[in-house]
Amino acid sequence: MGVGGAIGCIGAGLLADRIGRTTTTMAAMIMSGSCALAIGFLFSANPIFSAIVCFIWGVTIPADLAQFSAAIAELSPPDMVGTMLTIQTCAGFLLTLFTIHMMPYLIDAVSWTYAFAFLAIGPFLGVVGMGRLRAHPDSKKLAGGRR
Questions:
Q1: Domains in the chain, please, with CATH?
Q2: Which of 35, 123, 126, 139 could crosslink 57 through cysteines, CB 3.0-4.6 Å?
């Protein structure tokens, strides 16, 4: 699945430069969230299906990360770019740490089948947030005018 991450980062970067940063990011988050919703239901299915969904998930999870960083770099005042990227990185690690530590409790509470669905909350909220950014006039500064 690690190869998928490289594909997702490079592919999303190239795609964002062509069709827009918010469009690419929202598509990646929709796909990532959909994989989170689906994966728990595939534990007893054919392992090939699980592997395909895990690979797609591995491609789409990191695909949005570089786009968030690029958006921060493009939209932040020049003297604040480093600080804003640091805040983003810290928030991302904190969210990841919290999520990883919560998974055993979710699994105990709702089983493997449903626990992963909670991971879809973040990407779907991210889609809403990125949609709001897309509607903001400053979004024209993203990716050379391709929001």
A1: 2-145 (1.20.1250.20)
A2: 35
Dihedral, CA atoms, 107, 110, 114, 118, nearest 10 degrees? -70
**Closest C-alpha among 119, 97, 115 to residue 32:** 119
Q: Which two tokens stand for residue 33?
A: 């969230």
- pTM exceeds 0.70, yes or no: yes
Using CA atoms, how far residue 62 sits from 44, 81, 109, 111, in Å, is 26, 21, 28, 26
Which tokens hold the place of 9?
A: 């980062």
User: Which tens digits make up the pLDDT trace of 68-96?
Assistant: 888 899 999 999 999 999 999 999 899 88
